Amino acid sequence: MTTQNCLNVHIPSPDTNIKKQVATYIDHLTKPPGSLGRLETIATDLAAMTASPFPDVSPPGILVFAADHGIVDEGVSAFPQEITAKMAQNFLHRGAAINVFADQIDAHFRLVDIGMATEMNAEGMISRKVKHGTESFLHLDAMTKKEAMKALDAGYEEGKKMITDQGVKCLILGEMGIGNTTSSSAVIAALSKKPISEVTGMGTGLTKDRVQHKQHVITQALKNRKINRDDPLDVLAKVGGLEIAAMAGAMVAAASQRTPIILDGFISSTAALVAKALHPNSAEYMFVGHRSTEPGHDVALQLLTQKPLLELDMRLGEGTGAALSFPILKAACAMVKDMATFRDLENY
Q1: Which one is catalytic: 157, 158, 318, 346?
Q2: Cα–Cα distance measured from residue 8 to residue 47, given in angstroms and rounded to the nearest whole number
Q3: Which of 193, 205, 243, 274 is disulfide-compatible with 67, CB 3.0–4.6 A?
């Protein structure tokens, strides 16, 4: 499979006829119409996405992409680059928050090295490394367009493989990469044309002074890179991250297979904006698991026209907020499948 396939893949529109049928059916369930609120809308959205009157989202699959960022050399992160590899080891030993939450929802879990600076040949790691981390986009383009397309393609392939080979019916995207909030802020600033201060936050725990430094670095970097804001591939190549590209590719794969996607927080939603820019229809298959405390996430939500399922003041990443929200989608499916209708009451 080539990257051109990823960029040109057909994404079907959600089935609006089935959505209307399911909405009518839900109104005949043993409850006042609309009394289950957003759960009813989630159920009809799932029906439209899957083109099935009785949608199913189990089993879920969690795909985490790990990569490093050269921009950490500019002092924009509270943690050193080496933490990416340490956390990757933690994932493989099933000691991270996302591992715990994956077990709670019986999810398939895969960790993909798409661009870590460290070479890891550990058991359980899927290697799709494009390069050993991006460049510092303050001074150079983060990657070439060819590398960005290669990461998109790898993400597309891994996403499609999880769906077709493992039977996953809902795809959750996660990431690990020290410095990726800086890349995400730069991508969203470029795509939205919003002020840097509105899309840049504390990341993994920066002080107020360090946040201001981070904002200055991004501001200068966007001037230096001379980005074509109307070309999402140019934005991705000049200030993006390899894991952001790979997540975008995986989202395209899921949408092409009519598989619902749960976005996590800030980084995942940044990837979603890239996917949407490349394939507008892909956004029709997305739910946002939670609202991150990162200020840029609010901007991303506006651009995606999405309302998060949860708001728990989280900012960890890894796919954790998405995994926590999965039971809501499962409950929506159960509501349609298992609740009685008023006609059923006549037979009691």
Answers
A1: 318
A2: 25
A3: 243
**Overall average pLDDT of the 241-254 stretch:** 98
Q: Residue 328 phi/psi, 5° resolution?
A: -65, -45
Sign of CA dihedral 135, 141, 142, 146: negative
- pLDDT tens readout for residues 71-97: 999 999 988 999 999 999 999 999 999
Bridge partners of 287?
262
- Note the pLDDT tens digit of each residue in 96-146: 999 999 999 999 999 999 999 999 889 999 999 999 999 999 999 999 999
Which of the four CATH numbers 1.10.443.10, 1.10.1060.10, 3.40.50.10210, 3.40.50.1240 does domain 60-327 have? 3.40.50.10210
- Answer for the pair 44, 340: CB distance below 8 angstroms, yes or no: no
98's CB contacts (< 8 A; 6+ apart) are 62, 64, 91, 109, 174, 318, 319, 320, 323
**Cα distance between residue 29 and residue 206, in whole Å:** 50
User: CA-CA distances (angstroms) from residue 173 to 151, 176, 317, 332, 341?
Assistant: 15, 11, 10, 20, 36
Instruction: Specify the residue for token string 């904006």.
Output: 273
Domain parsing of the chain, residue ranges: 60-327
Q: What is the DSSP string of 137-162?
A: TTTS-SS-HHHHHHHHHHHHHHHHHH
**Is the previous residue joined to 260 through a cis bond, with omega within 30 degrees of 0?**
no
74 is catalytic: no
